[in-house]
Every structure is written in C-alpha cells, then in structure tokens.
Amino acid sequence: MSMDMTFLGTGSAYPSPHRGASALVLRTEGECWLFDCGEGTQTQLMKSQLRAGRITKVFISHLHGDHLFGLPGLLCTVSLNTNPDTQEKMNCVDIYGPRGLRNFLRVTLGLTGSQLLFPYAVHELEPTPEQSPEEGRLSLEMTEERGPLHPQERLGSTIQLDVSDDCYVLFEDKKFVVKAFRLFHRVPSFGFCIQEHDRPGRLKTEVLKELGLKPGPLYGRLKAGEPVTLESGHVVQPSEVLEEAIPGRKVCIFGDCSSVLGPGPLRLCRGADILVHEATLGNEQREKAVEHGHSTPEMAAAVARACCARMLVLHHFSQRYKPSSSQEGRDEDSVSELRRQAEEALQDSGVEVTLAEDFLTLPIPLQRPR
C-alpha cells in the first residue's frame, strides 16, 4: 500500500504569497486525511494533484484561526462539487479536534445557511488544564453546544484522555490505529500519531513446496495467520512458513507547541518514520518563540532525537523566512538557516532533516526487515 504526505501550507499566522496557512494531507490508497485547514486550504488543494473529494477524515490540532479558518469553506466547496444525483451512499466525514470545534462548525454552517450533500461528525478531544496558560483555556460557556444539530451533522463522540497510556485513542481499523497526545501552547494543542499495523512477512515458498503445499487458498490462510492442517494430519503454523513481519509505518504530526506534556508523546512517537514539527522562529529568538507557545529548530530537533525518528520535517515558519527558492531578503531570513540549525542540533543522531515547502510530497516507503 502506497503512502505519502503533501504539504499544502507551511507558513504561520496567515497565508502569504510565499506560503499557505497550515495544512497537510496524508494519502493512502487514494484516501486522504487532512491535518489542519488554515485559510485558503481549498485553493491550495486546487493547485495540487490531490482531490478534495477524497478527504474522509480531518484532524485539527488546535483552534487558532491559521489552522481552522479554512474548514467551513472547504466542506462547502467539496459539497458543491459533489454530484447530488449519485446513487452511491455518501460516506460520513469524521472530524477530530479540541472541545469547541463542534460548536464552531455548527454555528458557522448554520449562520451562513450552508447545506452539505454529505454527513459529517465532529469528535472532540477533552483537553487538560496543563495544556495552556489559564487565559488560553476556553470556558464551558464558550464551547457548549447550542441549538440543534446541523441537518448534515451526525452525533460525534467526546474523547477523554486515557490516563493509563497518556494519550487519546481516536480510532482503530484493519489498517491503522490513530492516537492523539497533549502539547503545550497558548490554547490547548494536540499532536497525532498514525501507526500502520504490521504486515505479515512473505511466504517461504521453498518450505511450502517441501511440505507439499501448492499455491492456492491455503497460502492465503497462512498469510492471514491461520494454521493449516495437511492431509497427513500435520498442522502447519504460519510462523513456520512466513518470513519476518514487515513493520507498519509511523507518522507523527505535532500541532503548535513550545513543549510536550507527559510521557505519552515521546513514547507514541518513538521510531517514527516521519516526525512533523513546527519551527516558527530561529534559535536566536527562542525566548520570543516560547513566549508565544512556539518552537525553534533546536527544540524540534530535541524532540526528534528523543523519539529516534528517521526524518524530522520542519514547517509552520514565520512569514519572515522566505522559501529557499526565493531571492528576497537576507541570508539569515532564508528558511535554509532553520534547517542548518536543526542539522547542527542533530549531528551524529542519524535523523534526516527536511524543510517543508508548499506542495512538497514526501513518499513514506515500507521499511522491510533485513
């Protein structure tokens, strides 16, 4: 199964001529999961090779506008491009994010009289007080649900922190388990860990031939982990005829933060194939970054090192940092300086550093056992 990640917006605060606001898409087998949806995300999607209609899940890290303002418009545009005469059942779009997101969408879609041709459900993560300063905590009065459900809204769940595991379990299916973890920011922020299930190893065809098994349905049963009984009565266990399992891929996407909270994030993200982390300001502005709940390349590198990640991808750059391809500004205002700072902090770690740019697509290959 192919898997890749496309960055639609890599800037902070607002969209600019150089960078869109925060948004990225994780794509697997044609299905698209959207992580954050800043203003202008639908325009960025139109410029990309991705199809907005393939988005089946949306994950919002926190409720700041540069990660959220694009969501109502995107849902409406997807609906406008949906064929109302299709006989196929419309799949529900599942949306995950902090408490308050459900009311935001309900009120926004309701006030604007927006109707959708597909159902949606908002699953809210209940934050803890440690995730932000007191002034950043949204009151229950502000986030309480008002009025009836939107006509296309389906009941979503409220997800509490699993204290024993220090994470939020969002969902698990046959291919993935997706969890969220707590981050510290000016408002409650979350990161997401997408873990693909391990795949069974290849069949040892020579061993199967020696056992007298020919290609057919029994091969499929062994591959699926079921023992097979031969005519002789001998029971063949899958472990006898399967090579080592192929590890599932792990992608970790951090929302805005100046630190992680608890042991959950580092444990969940250990061994990540790709770890996406913000680097809003350079190391020389660490004090300012932390004051505003953000990180520097050195801070992002420390997280990647602690997680033993294969690749650290930096994004969410202040608009002062111009893309490497731009000739504007001074050298210290080039985003390349942020990569240099992260690489310096990761010397001898084996962690590769990549700078995200709008429309950059990163393939995420399987790591087969040696």
Automatic annotation (TrEMBL):
Record region (Disordered): 321-349
Skewed-composition ranges (Basic and acidic residues): 328-343
Swiss-Prot/TrEMBL cofactor(s): Zn(2+)
Any one annotated GO CC term: nucleus
Any GO MF annotation of the entry: metal ion binding
Domain of life: Eukaryota
Cross-referenced Pfam families: Anti-Pycsar_Apyc1 (PF23023)
Subunit organization: Homodimer.
The protein, known as: Metallo-beta-lactamase domain-containing protein
Underlying gene: ELAC1
